[in-house]
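Below is our example:
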Amino acid sequence: MWQNLRRIKNCSSSSGSVLSGGSVFELCSRRAGKVFAVVLLCSTALASCAAMAAAARSSASSPAKPILRGIRAYGGNNDTSPPIITRSPQSVFGFSSPQNNQSNDAANVIGSSFVTIEMDVQSSVQPAFAAILVHCDAEWREDKNFVVNDPSLRIAQIQVFQANSFSRYFTHRAKFTVPNSEVQLRFSGNWKAKIFDVDDMTTSIGEARFFVVDQETETSLAIAIDAYSPRVGGTSPAAYLLEAALTAPPQFLDENFHTVTLYRAWRWNEPIRITQDMELGRTEILYNRSSKVTVLGFSTAQKRFRITAIPAENEYRVLDITDALRFPASNAPLRFALADLRRNGTSLMRADDGAMNAQGVSPSTDEYVLIDFVLEPEGLPSSREIYVVGSFNSWKLSNDWKMRYDPELRQYTLAQWVRRGRHNYVYASAVVNKQTGVPESYDYEECEGNSPSANQTFYAFFYYRNPQFGGYDALVGVAALNAARRSK
């Protein structure tokens, strides 16, 4: 560019030029115009480069937020153990029984010394996470008590692993244990681990539930065959009566022992609550069409919590996609040879009590597989929405797992990504709240039916309203019983 300017100067000042003055001026003007065009082009290019650099810096400083693909909590290092931490008695009542002095390695003790929480995420860059542990009351409402909910209960030492190179649905897996060197849990009760991206500590990307139990009392759970009135005609009325009991010194069996919550194994979002505390919500609404709740033994050494007419449900369906040769990774959904059918107490194989088992999956095939769920309604479609729920989505109904009815094929279908492993699942029917879009009033009887031989374990958690430290719901016992085997 500077050479062109020098040429223009020489052109106008040279005495040996054969061009006239006008011609020289015209030539120089044309050359000057070219120079200014070059200058303008360079300026525009520099401005564009600066804008691109700024955009790159902005993109690098605020990458897309990680997308949660799955989260789960389990006991110890065994992904089929429930997320229950069982500790030695804290002598809340000034006594301990010989049963309570056993370590949590004993065969009859329910729970582990720690829980493991892991999650799969999709992220364009190496993510970094933090977990905040929150204590909750018996109804899973977060405590406002800052003594119990210490703001320092934060975990930053979360291991993040790169997914294998063949994985398309998730890029990283994060894992940590509780308690650990950063955090010790002082209080028993219901706990949430809320997961945050360290670049945004205002909104959690997911949470996992677990329990901390100080086995202070002798506890038991009994199950008897009962009946109820099904919503869907032709459905088996098989149901259970469940009674949870605890033994403690009479001076402590007061209104502070207010609630027992029952769960079917791994369905920690479906509490069946038996309570004498009228301030607590009744979340057994799912089954309270004919359920009766009774609390007995206010003045004796034993207190019993009883609920009737809990549907027996059915054996879980099994989805085993451990074998990568039979279920290879593919962008096209994999469909089973036959569609699933509605059941009314019939089942072909024993399930895994609701657990997900990924222990047989090799690191090279540890990924998600696109599965095409197909349900044949065998008649008219349901008047409600149909959902797939199981260990692959933490047994939680969501719109991502709602099926679509195809009127031409007369089938319900859903293509979804499922983590490789062995899963249990069922089909649920629900009514969608028109205002919130959330499924509610759901049950499993329409697609699954009921059978008292279903291999399902119930867990009973016993809550005591500890008046110390501002008051909190402590877990002072846990009991479990398998409905089919009548054993722990």
